[in-house]
Design goal:
InterPro entries: FAD-bd, FAD/NAD-bd_sf. GO terms for molecular function: FAD binding; monooxygenase activity. This is FAD-dependent monooxygenase. Keywords: FAD, Flavoprotein, Monooxygenase, Oxidoreductase. This protein is α/β, with parallel strands linked by helices and 470 residues long. The protein has a single domain, classed as FAD/NAD(P)-binding domain (3-Layer(bba) Sandwich), CATH 3.50.50.60. The protein is built from 13 helices and 19 strands. The strands form five sheets. It has a seven-stranded mixed beta sheet, with helices on both faces. Strands 9-4-3-13-19 form a five-stranded parallel beta sheet. Strand 6 and strand 7 form a beta hairpin. Helix 2 runs parallel beside helix 11, helix 3 packs parallel to helix 11 and helix 11 packs antiparallel against helix 12. The longest helix has 37 residues.
Length: 470
């Protein structure tokens, strides 16, 4: 190895105590990295994919002064599937830190806040409450449509965002840089390549030598039903406090939530003048969950109207209001999804730290049933951006930044996958003949017990309150 090109670098994997070094990791780092950082040369980061994680990373790096180029396969920022996203306090903190105040205010003006998610309910197929998990008001929580969030995160990236760019592969060079190749024959070269290309990521698969996720055995059909004078009265009352996940016989599940940011935005959208808010019309967002074998024919070949009919058939025997709301759905919004998940107990980044890495669903794919995917990808982006800022400032190197990011990300991504997989476990358990029979017998009994339990708790609370007053 030519010492003029490569520079040995070592660092500890843990804290130094009383002057004694912990276990040391050693890498051969290209000398060009050291020269680039010590001489203040520009660092360019290539991002494959303009999803939530990729766009957040681009915004954060641009504010640091790092050059970015985002290559997106879609033809436009609005050309995406998906419905409503849940951003937890950790994701909100990342966005507040890396967006300008005007930009973050537009995000708040486009989102419903805590009042739209005061609790998470679990019900049976007749929408009878089985359990409810109250949500803490202290933590900032935002509910925003996928397209509005994508449009907001793309704001200001015009010169760095390239559409219609299908990534086909990459090649690393002796000086430590990397070149990305695209289907139209074009290329781009930078100091780091980040795969933010979602489930089925080509970047992560090239790094790992295999796909980084697998089908979860459950598929979904989702859509939006506009809320107006005809459909709003059909919305079950329990959805006023937040979303619900319903389970029924045959392993069929249903996620339902009211999405109305215009009626409950965190800040007045009219106050967002420098960066305009992006609002959606009120709608009921619904998503059917079914074991892969329960969906008839080839659902990917069906249009929205056909998928709506399939959903109606699978909801036979369910609450009549829910069935009517599904029938009233906008067929242009109805789509089929096959859920994928990474192995939460495996090494999510089984490649050495270097000039290529990945984030979001590219490394830790998870079904949408936990509401964690977008928030976790944004958290990844904030973590990686912070490490790259240190490298840009000369305090680290790109391989060191990537190593630290991958190690820290592994500490929380596995839990997010496990949380998102839990509802799929119920779908599988209720899918067979035994599970179906158990569901028909036990779900009504569970609903009755839950209702009685709440009544006893409420009565006890009234008695205790009265005693305190006396």
């Amino acid at each position: 190895m030519n010492p003029a090109i490569w520079w040995p670098v070592a660092w500890r994997s843990g804290p130094r105590e009383r002057g004694r070094p912990d276990r040391t990791l050693k890498y051969q780092v290209p000398y060009s990295y050291i020269r680039c950082l010590t001489e203040g040369a520009d660092m360019k980061v290539l991002i494959i994919g303009a999803g939530m994680g990729g766009l957040t990373l681009a915004q954060a790096l641009r504010r640091t002064g790092i050059e970015v180029a985002v290559h997106e396969r879609d033809d436009a920022i609005e050309a995406t599937g998906g419905y409503r996203l849940h951003l937890d306090d950790l994701a909100c903190a990342v966005l507040a830190r890396h967006l300008t105040p005007d930009h973050y205010q537009a995000l708040l003006g486009s989102s419903a806040g805590w009042q739209a998610f005061r609790r998470f309910a679990v019900t049976d197929h007749r929408m009878r409450l089985l359990s409810a998990e109250p949500r803490e008001r202290t933590a900032e929580t935002l509910m925003i449509g996928r397209i509005p969030l994508r449009r907001l995160l793309a704001h200001g990236l015009d010169g760095a965002l390239r559409f219609g760019a299908e990534y086909t592969g990459h090649r690393t060079h002796a000086d430590g840089t990397v070149t990305a190749h695209f289907a139209d024959g074009s290329t781009d070269r930078g100091a780091l390549l980040v795969g933010a290309d979602g489930v089925g990521s080509r970047v992560a698969a090239a790094l790992a030598g295999r796909p980084t996720s697998a089908p979860a055995g459950v598929s979904g059909i989702a859509g939006r039903t506009p809320l107006d004078g005809r459909t709003r009265p059909l919305v079950p009352g329990l959805l006023a406090e937040g979303p619900a996940l319903a389970f029924g016989p045959g392993g069929i599940g249903m996620f339902v939530t009211v999405h109305d940011p215009a009626g409950g935005a965190v800040v007045d959208p009219a106050s967002c003048t420098r960066v305009p808010a992006v609002l959606e019309e009120p709608a009921l967002v619904w998503g059917l969950l079914a074991p892969d074998g329960r969906l008839p024919g080839r659902p990917r070949e069906l249009d929205g109207a056909g998928l709506t009919r399939v959903t109606g058939t699978l909801l036979d025997g369910w609450d009549g209001r829910v069935r009517a709301l599904v029938r009233a759905g906008d067929p242009d919004t109805v789509a089929h999804f096959r859920f994928h998940a990474a192995d939460p107990d495996a090494d999510l980044t089984p490649w050495p730290a270097g000039a290529v890495t990945a984030l979001g669903d590219a490394v830790h794919a998870m079904p949408p049933t936990g509401g964690r995917a977008a928030a976790t990808a944004i958290r990844d982006a904030g973590l990686l951006a912070g490490e790259l800022a240190r490298a840009y400032a000369g305090e680290s190197t790109i391989p060191m930044a990537v190593h630290r990011y991958q190690s820290a990300m592994a500490a929380y991504a596995g839990d997010a996958i496990r949380t998102s997989m839990q509802p799929l476990g119920w779908v599988h358990r209720l899918a067979g003949p035994v599970g179906t029979g158990l569901a028909r017998l036990s779900l009504p009994a569970l609903a009755t017990a839950a209702r009685l339990g709440r009544g006893v708790t409420a009565a006890r609370g009234r008695r205790m309150s009265g005693a305190r007053v006396a």
